[in-house]
Amino acid sequence: MSQDAATEGDLRNTGMSLRHDREWDYELDRIVEEIEERDANRVGLQFPEGLKRRGPAVADDLRELCGDDVTFMLSGQPCYGACDLDTYLMRRTDVFVHFGHSPMKESEKIIYVPLFSNVDPFPILEEAVDELPEEEVGLVTTAQHMNRFGEMVEWLEERGFDVHTRRGDDRLTYEGQVLGCNYASADIDADQVLYVGGGKFHPLGLAMEHPEKKVLIADPVNNVVTVADTEKFMKQRYGAVHRAMDAEKWGVIFCTKIGQGRMEIAEEIIEDNDDAYLITMDEVTPDRLRNFAMDAFVNTGCPRITTDDGPQFHKPMLTPGEYRIAVGDEPLDSLSFDTFHGTW
Amino acid sequence: MSQDAATEGDLRNTGMSLRHDREWDYELDRIVEEIEERDANRVGLQFPEGLKRRGPAVADDLRELCGDDVTFMLSGQPCYGACDLDTYLMRRTDVFVHFGHSPMKESEKIIYVPLFSNVDPFPILEEAVDELPEEEVGLVTTAQHMNRFGEMVEWLEERGFDVHTRRGDDRLTYEGQVLGCNYASADIDADQVLYVGGGKFHPLGLAMEHPEKKVLIADPVNNVVTVADTEKFMKQRYGAVHRAMDAEKWGVIFCTKIGQGRMEIAEEIIEDNDDAYLITMDEVTPDRLRNFAMDAFVNTGCPRITTDDGPQFHKPMLTPGEYRIAVGDEPLDSLSFDTFHGTW
Predict the structure, then answer these.
(1) Residue A14: is its pLDDT beyond 90?
(2) d(Cα B62, Cα B216) in Å, to the nearest integer?
(3) Are A252 and A303 within one domain?
(4) CB–CB of B89 and A278 under 8 A?
(5) How far apart are the C-alpha atoms of A194 and A217, rounded to whole Å?
(6) Whose C-alpha in A25, A220, A281, B120 is 20 to 30 A from the C-alpha of A123?
(7) B160: domain CATH number?
(8) Interface pTM, i.e. ipTM
(9) Which cofactor does it need (chains A, B) (predicted)?
(10) A240 shares a domain with A223
(11) Cα B61 to Cα B56: distance, rounded to the nearest angstrom
C-alpha cells in the first residue's frame, strides 16, 4: 500500500498503478465523474469499520484523479450501516460518498458505493446444495454480493431448485437483500433459506426473525457451509428479560443516528412508565450507559446492539418488545426478534 | 436518591422534599420559569460526565414542577465543556439546559446552569496564603466557584495582597475564569497565580501555558494546597514530538464538536503535506484512531485530549504547534501549550 509519493496532475490515462486494494470495487470512475459534474470542492468519504484503514489509499487515488482543487475528508465516526451516515460530514461537504452499504434512502448529495465483492460464490454453492433437501428454497445475500445475485438464482434453477426471492420493504435496495435489522426479503413461501455471504451476523438475525425456517449459510469468504444456530442468542434474550423483570428504573434509549430513530416507541414507553427516562445518544456503548444509575435499559435504536452486544452492558438491555414482556404487558412466548422498517 | 414513586401534579407549594442532591445548585426555579415562559414541551438536559448520574433525579424534580405536558430528554453523549453541546438534542427540543459550564456563547435556546458549588473556599485559602511570598498575586477559578470570586478577591486584599484579575477573552464568561483550554484570565502582571478549585486539571494547563509563573493550587474540595508541577507532562510532550519526527503518514483530526473546530489550521496542514489526511470525528478516542493506518496524528480539537490522554493512543498525537516542530518548520524550543480561543 505504501508506494512512492504520487506525482501531480491527472493520471487517468497514464496507466499508473493506483494505490487502493483490488479486493473491492470502489467505483472510482463514477465518483470522479460525479465530483466533476457537481464542481465539488469538498468531498466526504465514509467507510464502515472494517474498511476504514483502506480509506487513505482510496483518498490518494481520488486526489490523483481529481487534482488539487478538491479536498477529501475521511469520516472518523464509527459506521455500521446505511442507517449510520455521518450527517455532520454530509452537511459540510459538496459530495458525500458512503462506502460499503447500498442506499437506504436516495439523496442528491450522497453517492452510495456498495463495494461489490470480487469473490466467486459458486464453489461454495456447489457444497451448499447438498444440504438443501427440498426443492423450494429462498435465496438472500448482502449488498456485497448483489452483483452476482441474478447468476446465483439461475445457477440454482439449473440444478432443479425452485428459487423464491423477494424485494423486502423500503429499507432494502435490492431483491434478495438482507440487513442486520431487516429480513423482509426472506418472507417467502419456503421452509429453507440459503444465505450467501461472509460471516454469521446476517444469517443469525435471519434465523432469529424466522425461527420456523432452516437457514443455510454458504460463506464464500471463509469457504464454509453451516446451519445458523440461534440457541445461544435465544437463551441470552430470555435471560436478559428475566433479569429485567425486577427493574424499577428504566433508561429508554433513543438513538440519534439518522436511520435508527424510533421516537414514537420511546415516547410511548416513558409516557406509560413514571420510572422510565428518555436518554438520547448516537453510539450506544457500555461506558455511556454506566453513567446512568438505571436498573435496566430499553434500546429503541439498532436491535443488533441489544442482541449481539447485550452481554457487554452492566445492566440488562432489552428490545421494545422484550420490555413489554418484562413489565408484564405481553406473555413470555411473544418474544421475537426486533426488526427495523422504513428509512428516515 | 430512590424515594417513593412521586405523586402527580404541581407540588411547588406543598413543601414536598425534592429528589435532587444538595451539593450543587441546579437552579430549578429559573429552569421552570423559562420552560413556562416559552411554553416548551420538549426539554433537553445535558450534564457533564461526573454529574450524569444525578440527571434522572433532577429530571424527576423538574417533572414534578412542570407537570405531564413536558417531556424531559437526557443527553447520553459524553460532555466535557461548554464547547461540547449536544447539538442534536438542542435542535430537537424547545429548551436545552446545559449543566456544569458557563456560557461559551449565549443563545436564546440554551439555558446554561453553571452549578455553583456550596463549598467554603476560605479555610483552604487560609492555608494557601502562607505559600504566596509576594504581594502581587493573580487569582483564577472555575465556573463552579465564581459565586464566591468577589469575596475571595476582598479576602485576599484584606490580607495585604495586590490581587490581579482579568476577564480573559470571549471564550470565557467571567472575570478570573479559566477553562481547560484557555488561561487568558491569567495574563496578568504577577509572578504567582492562585488557583482556587477542585483537582489538578485546570492548574496544570495554567502552568503549562504560563511556565514562568508559580501556580499555587488551593483545592477546597480535596482540602489540599499544592504547587502545579508540569514536569511529567512536558517530558511526555517532548517525547511525543521526537517519536513523531519519523512519521510519514499523518492523520489530521478535525473535531466536529461545536466549540472545538479549527478547520483553517487543519486545512493548512493538509494543503502543505501530501501525506496528511483530514479525519473528522466528534469523540477523539484511541479506538477510533486505531482504524486508520497512520504514523502520527495532529489534533486540532481539544488540546487536553492531546496532552492529558496522549499516552493512551497507539501513535504519537501532537498539537498543531508540536506538529510544526516535528516536521521541522519550527525549532524545538518553540514548544508551548496549545490554547483555544474564540467561540464558534
Answers:
(1) no
(2) 40
(3) yes
(4) no
(5) 6
(6) A25
(7) 3.40.50.11850
(8) 0.90
(9) [4Fe-4S] cluster
(10) no
(11) 9
